[in-house]
Amino acid sequence: MKNTKEKIIAKALELFNNDGVKETTLRKIARELGISQGNLTYHYKTKDEIIEKLYFDLAEKMNTEMQKMTVQSSSMQVLYTSSSITMKGLYAYRFLLRDLYKILKESEKLKVHYAQLQQLRTQQTSQIFTALVQEEMVRPPEFEGEYERFYERLNILGDNWINAHELLTDQIADPVKHYVDLLVEMLYPYLTEKGKKAYWEVIQ
User: Fold this and answer.
1) What backbone phi and psi angles, to 5 degrees, belong to 138?
2) Domain contains 181
3) For residue 174, which phi and psi values (nearest 5 degrees)?
4) Is residue 51 part of a domain?
5) 114-160, pLDDT tens digit by residue?
6) What pLDDT score does 71 carry?
7) In the chain, what is the greatest distance between 2 CA atoms, to the nearest angstrom?
8) 3-state class (DSSP) for residue 138
9) Among 65, 67, 79, 162, fewest CB within 10 Å belongs to which?
10) 37 and 70 share a domain?
11) Contact yes or no for 178/172 (Cβ under 8 A)
12) How many domains does the chain have?
């Protein structure tokens, strides 16, 4: 059974996702839970504290899911599986992406963590691309930093797909799969014939 703090976090996530951060006040969260605002602020004094808690909950859950990911038959499968894990997590906490830049601008703690996380993800993606080249799935880079810049483009899409979905493609039945496929499709021009075969096996 959830305790009060867990109920506050669960309800805040629901309201942030549905109504947005700006429209969701501490008073509204308390009212939806049927508790006093004083009871809520005993556990979380500000809305920013709740947002920070949700941010780090997401980061922890995604790290846990990544660690559970089994060794796959190819780096292509690793890339697709890790992308799916990431985007499923982001969709469950989609308010964070919807208001990402404002949230990071207003919280130095989250901004620092996000920057560190991006460095880690860049290193991990670089390792995947090195393996893809070694497995002859993708062609070798044609200029220094080519695949690092490719990851930067992936990251821009990864940070903004929620807004694109909600503004332009909200009729898609399975937005997570749609945008995972869109993300991985960006790799296709770099694939060798061996890589293309692995690609179609993975996405099907």
Assistant:
1) -125, 155
2) yes
3) -125, 80
4) no
5) 999 888 888 888 888 888 999 999 999 999 989 889 888 988 888 89
6) 61
7) 63
8) strand
9) 67
10) no
11) yes
12) 2
CATH number at residue 158: 1.10.357.10
Q: Kindly give, in sequence order, each residue whose CB lies less than 8 Å from that of residue 93, ignoring residues fewer than 6 positions away.
A: 13, 17, 54, 55, 57, 58
Q: What angle do CA 49, 50, 51 make, to 5 degrees?
A: 90
Position 53 in a domain: no
pTM of the predicted model, to two decimals? 0.90
CATH number of the domain residue 12 falls in: 1.10.10.60
Does 180 share its domain with 129? yes
Amino acid making up residue 13:
L
Tokens (6 digits) for 123: 């290193």
Kindly state whether residue 33 falls inside one of the protein's structural domains: yes
Instruction: Determine the pLDDT at residue 66.
Output: 80
Backbone phi, psi, residue 65, to 5°:
-65, -40
- Tokens representing 5 are 């703090």
Which residue is it, tokens 């090195």?
A: 130
Q: Is 91 helix (H, G, I), strand (E, B) or coil?
A: helix
Q: Which residue range(s) make up the domain with 26? A: 1-45
